[in-house]
Amino acid sequence: MTPIPVTILSGFLGAGKTTLLRYLLRAEHGLKVAVIENEFSDAGIDSELLGDEPVQVMTLANGCVCCSIHTDLTQALYLLLERLDAGSIAFDRLVIECTGLADPAPVAQTFFVEEDLRERYLLDGIVTLVDAAHAGEHLKQTIAQAQVGFADRLLVSKTDLVSAEAFAALSERLRRINSRAPVRVVEQGEIDLAEFLDIRGFNLNVDLGSGLSLQPMRKGTSTDRIRSMVLRTDKALNIDALSAFMNQLLEDHGRQLLRYKGVLNIEGEARRLVFQGVLKLYGFDWDRAWDDDEPRESVLVFIADNLPEQAIRDAFEALSH
Q: For residue 261, is it within any domain?
């Protein structure tokens, strides 16, 4: 049985999540998408659905399924599977809307820690909407920075309300916070679904992502707590020393590591070692062999909250000696 891909939609209050979901639920795209709408969203998709039942489910005209919940997310996920297996609803993709003030991490972790759900659902990616007109105010909040940091893709709305210079400055700031998430513009909630679905942000056997800039970013004077840190070396790494480095990092700063991902060159090994994680949950695997003409460089990308960056760089540098 093929697992159902899951997209988590995050973003600060008023960024346009509901507008995007309305488009997704009403457009003639031929996809059978189920949307779990959190009851605290800024405006209900179909407010008449909200009643006393903990989970309300309705199949819409284009075949999509709208699900409004007043209960634990895990319970809603199981209920959708029960109805899917019973044939009362049909869907092959799932989108979960987080509340504007919510940290998407607990939602993502649900698909790692619940074994039965892991077999039926596959976390595909976290998409965060950013309101260009109010980003300066929103990003004063650490939770808004964290929503950007967790993302595999950043969709910027309301760009028509700001100047080209302001949008360029915002894009640069978003890249400082999260260097691995591509930035895309969304207009009136309409988005090319290729930018929203099949991101494969949690696949282990993929590269670090097209959003990762290989050019050094200008330092600027940002006071953002959430920032990207990229570690790289062209020296082969000892796997035991690397393991000790990562274990210490997770022990000391696991709650601060929002997202992290790496492709590593290990001593005496022809294959690339890839890994990624969310907070203290991470996985790793051996990937394909390095190509003969490919630079055997280890690259690790961390998006984290207020890390002691220089101390970590020094510890990583020591691995190469």
A: yes
